[in-house]
Amino acid sequence: MAPRVRIEDVAEAAGVSMKTVSRVLNCEPNVREQTRDRVMQAVEALNYSPHMFARSLAGNRTYLIALLYNNPSANYMMGVISGVLAGCETQQYNMLLCPAELEDDRLLRGVESLVARSQPDGVILTPPLTDSPALLERLKQLDIPYASISPRNQQDCICVAMDEPLAAQEMVRHLVQLGHRRIAHIIGHPAHGASDWRLQGYRRGLEEAGIAVDPELAVPGEFSFESGVAAARTLLDLPTPPTAIFAANDDMAAGVIQVALQRGLRIPQDLSVCGFDDTPMSEQVFPSMTTIHQPTDEMGRLATIALLSSLRHSEPPASLRVPHTLRLRQSSGPVPG
């Protein structure tokens, strides 16, 4: 069995001190680029893997980032998880996946237990946890840095977000261009800021087209497949049902497609159905789903990198914007007749 490569071996190969190797591996500032490159070439050539426990002792860090979530859409979370993992890998951090309660007392007890047990260097928050004032205040009290994905309040915090009202407005514009005038919307979970933003965009799209907002065409959902099924039944049971349904996420849109097909409706000939997020499900259902691409993996990656950068350099919080894309597929078509 080959002997374990030590930090001393890397230092000797790079022609620098062990302290310099440690500073490079810990991504500390004020290291010359030439020196950094030389050390990393030695690390790669020797296949050196720093011992995580030794790193934590040397830098008073655990090299652990916790990802907190409470989201009914597994499809959405898989994208975020992939991005956070990619961000952690760039700095040799580990990720801890932590489900959390929404109710304040249980949420705070869970976070306090997490901090005491695992001592993460920082936390990534996903909606709706991003909007819990009690959670944000407790993280500050515990001196735990955090980054948020799509928070309602994007001031004075590390966050990554998309212009969701504009994206939803563009989806409605697409349906209007296809001739639809009776366009319904399934609203997301009331605790999520995204639900409000997408509803705003839906209303703006109707107003832009000179279509009156009909309250009976905007029905509640919870970002789950089951809530999409329930909402679809409500909408399709109306005396004058909609010709297009725009759900606030792909899971709910998939529920609409199931109900429509069960009732013998053809998609999109009889009913157009659109979602939001562009999760893998949107291409797996039949017919494939028109949706808004939200780069959840990139959002998770950017939030993680921004958080890790703030840990190293004590930088001021940054609010980052990511672009969206309208994905036109088979589930949307011209208005019937």
Automatic annotation (TrEMBL):
Keyword Transcription regulation among record annotations: yes
InterPro entries: HTH_LacI, LacI/GalR-like_sensor, Lambda_DNA-bd_dom_sf, Peripla_BP_I
Matches recorded under SMART domains: HTH_LACI
Keywords: DNA-binding, Transcription, Transcription regulation
Domain HTH lacI-type, chain residue ranges per copy: 5-59
Database matches in SUPFAM superfamilies: lambda repressor-like DNA-binding domains, Periplasmic binding protein-like I
Superkingdom assignment: Bacteria
A GO molecular-function descriptor: transcription cis-regulatory region binding
PROSITE patterns assigned: HTH_LACI_1, HTH_LACI_2
Protein's name in the database: LacI family DNA-binding transcriptional regulator
Species annotation: Pseudomarimonas arenosa
